[in-house]
Amino acid sequence: MRSLGVVAASVLMLAGVGNGAVLSHSKKPVATTTTITTTTTTTIRVERPQANWQVASSTSRGVVVDYRMIDLSGVTFRTIRLRARTALLRWHVGTQDPPTHALRIPADAGPSINWSNEGLAGVVAVFNGGFKVGAHAGGSMVDGVTLSAMIPGDMTLAIDAAGHWKMGRWAKGFPGANFHAIAYRQNLGPMIANGQLTSAVSSPNEFLWGDPLHEKPLQPRSALGIDVHGNLVYVATMWGVSPTYIARALLAAGAVEGMELDINPYWPVVGASFSLLHAPGNYPVQIPFSEHNPNMYNTGWERDFFVALAEPGSWKCSWTSPGLRALTGVAQPQLLHQVCATGPAH
Question: N or C: which end of the chain has fewer CB within 10 A?
């Protein structure tokens, strides 16, 4: 899938030396050649730090997660960014929501980080999901199990077996014939489309964007988007803000497509680590004044959430899982394993 960081190709070229002939011991002119080696080096671009962003975690591939604070007229938003070339994503179901009824959700998508599986790659960030199923804000599916029906037109984050992501409205053709999703998470319609605020964001009916606590529209909010490079950006604030404000924060983070996640003080939670965690650890990058420590995802939480992992250090290798087979409604564990283009991982 991906090649080594540096690949050298040697080309042998034959050429005459000097005047093209020398005298041999027999005094007869003898044409000679010499070998000239030309080396062409192709370097895979690593993910580099960027101005106004601070690096949270990195590997030999470069930056995996970076973060910043976005200030909009004095209101601050915690922002983290997952680099598409160095990070992968998984989605988890909570202990209470989405309800699983009698369906068994495998540990790889259960209510806590699956350390025996996800810890192999190294956890680099965690963040909250969307509204409760009872809010009728969209559908979801994980590991082959549909937890709530998908709603046409709703904004959808799709995740495939390799942890890659796509975002778009649920419709025929999404996420594409070559994108084999193992998880879907919807949450209302789009906030950002084609790099612009949607008309719904500017609607005077702010209740389109969820049921706010005590019916007060200015609430803590979180949102998720994809930028022009395919990177995933998460923004959240504990300030009371309107839907327009959280959408503007997505734009400021570079999102060209975006959706709202959960709202109200108790639910927005994010954490990014400063290293790859292979066992329960800490996530120093958080939302200021958050009501929760993201460490709770280490051991279990009642609502759905996302886990970001790091790709292997070698560009030759990547993490993936089996993908789904044609088994309707049957849970299919998605255990990670490493695949390499040629030879062992480095």
Answer: N
